[in-house]
Structure formats: structure tokens, C-alpha cells
Amino acid sequence: MIAKFWKTASVVTLALLTTPALLFPQNTKEQLVSLQRDVAQLQDQIRQLQKAQADQIAALTALVQQAVDESRKGAAMSGGVQRTIDQKLTDLQAKLVAPVATLGSKVDTVAEDFRTMQTNVAELTRLVRKMDDKLNDISTAVRTLNAPPPAPQSATAPDKPGPPAGVTAEVLYQNGYRDYMGKKDELALQEFNEYLKYFDKNAQAPTVQFYIGNLYDRANQYDDAAQAFDAVLTRFPENEKTAEAMYMKGVMLQKGRHKTDAGAVFQEFLRKYPGSPFASKAREHLKELGLSAPGARPSGSRKKDEQ
Question: For position 106, what pLDDT does the model report?
Fold first, then answer.
């Protein structure tokens, strides 16, 4: 637009300058001179505007170039920072791999040492238990040696051999009961059998025989257990274990799947010991076997009596 205006002003100025002065009156000449002066001023202003415009364009161009340069510098710096970060991460990874691998190896070593320690502790426990058994044997031997000598035997030879020197009923019973309560069943069974071998006439003999039945029961040897409880009934007179031994005989027969024999034992038990603490349990066993308890009345006759 400025260029078009400049072109038009130049044409007008040229026309005015080339027009002969004689064609215009005096006042018109003055106006023309004034107009030429105005046009000259206008041309000067146009040149100034063009210069200002050129300066602004140059400044804008410089700013754009500066922005481009800054952008390039920023991109270069960003790339450098990224490369630095990648290098740092690579270095850190290289530094951590070895310690982590070493730590994993140490953890495996500690785990293996712990397993070895567990094995050693288990072996030590076994040795301590074995030592405890040996100490018990030594204690028994010491008590046997310290026991008073047996009474002199009569001239008549006994029907069965007597106990070894220093072996007493009390020692055998205490040892057997301790092992019985400590769940050392094989050792307790051996000691109880020795007790019955030498001291079957003692008052504690029926109780020892009853414990033997319990030991067989704990070993799931139900037929042997039934025979052991039956021995309480057949080998010894009526005692405090008789009723319970009969009840336990029936239980062992039922566990051993001798249902008919078990039912007969429970029925006999209820006939002999109807007031026993085990009577209610014996009735429950009979009910499980599909049998009726002695003295029980059919449900129909009970209803008839009530009418």
C-alpha cells in the first residue's frame, strides 16, 4: 500500500514539475510550490516509514533467528542431558549388578547353613533322647543295686523263677508307669510284662494288666488289646479295674469288627454293672450295633403302659 501511494505521489509531483508555470496564475504558482513542498515532506515520511518497516522486519528476523538458535541449543542440551542420564543409569546398573548377585549368593549360603543347622539340631535332639534313655537305664540299675537283697528262698523250689537280684515290684511299676505316660510304649510294655511275670500277685497287678490293654489300643492292635483287657477279668479277682476292663474289651472287639462278640460283652457288662459310669456309653455302642440293652422296654409297650 505504501509503495502504491509512493508511486501515485511521484506521478503527481512529476506532472506538477513539468507543467509550465505560464499556464497557471500567480496564486496558483504559490499553491503549486506549497503542494510540491508537501509532496516532498510526504515522500520523506514514506521513506522514514519504509526504513522503520525494514528495521522492524530486520529485528523480527533477528528474534526469529535467535529463537531458532535457542531451540537448537535447547535440543542439543536436552540430548546431552538424556545421554548423561542414560550413562548414569548404565553406570548405576553396572555398580548394582555385582552387589545384588553377591547378596543373592550370601542368602543362598545362609539358607543352606540354616538347613544344615536344622539337621544338626534334629540329630542332637535324637542323641539327647538316646542319652536320656541310657540315663534312665543307669538309674534303674543303680536303684536295683541299692535295693535290699531278696529274702532267702525256701527249700521248696518255686513254681516259677523269682525276679533278678535287686528288682522290686515298686521299681518295675514306677519305671513302666513313667514310660507309659511318656509314650515310650515299647519300653513300658516290656516293663509291665516283667512286672506281671514276677509280681502278678501284687495288688497293682490288675492295673498293670489294664495298662497293657491301653498300650495295645494305642498301637491299633485291637485283638491283642481285647485279650489284655480279658486277662484283667480272668486272671485276677474282682477289683477296681474289672468293670472298666469289661467295657474296654467290648470297645476293642467293636474296633476289631467283631460285632457279635462286642454286643455280647456290652450286654453282659450292663447286666453286671448297670450303675457303672460307663453304662451310658455301653448303651450307645449297643445302639450303634443295632442291639438293645438288657432291661430296655420296647417303645410300643411303653406307650401302652402310659395309656
Answer: 81
